[in-house]
Task: structure prediction
Amino acid sequence: MCLASVKRRAYTHAAAWTVIAFAALGDGDKGLRVFRMLNPIAHTSSRASVQRYKVEPYVVAGDVYAESPHVGRGGWTWYSGSAGWLYRAGLEWILGFACEGRCFALIRVFLETGPATPLIFDITQPPTR
Result:
């Protein structure tokens, strides 16, 4: 699923772009599944996984090693490129947040919980009930 380097590490830049690609192609459910795999908290759900991952559970790792003896170990944490792309993938492509001119829109693109329903806010107008 992820692109791998010559040293067999899965780079989260490419994996985040995969989330975006699935959503852009209309397969938001698959994008959401990939996003959940990349979420740092998913790598720290047990004592064993924490000891294997070895990095902060609240920071996106720039890469996750796939070669023995470091399989599953995170690396390059606090690397803003990977975090930024994963943040955008989740916020814009999975949740559907968008800012268009003076309007803010929320258009859910994944279908796991039913059909997408757009919400559009005009920031120039007062809130209505």
Residues 1-9 have pLDDT under 50 and may be disordered. The longest helix spans residues 80-94. The beta strands are 9-11, 63-65, 74-75, 97-100, 103-107, 118-122. The chain has four helices and six strands.
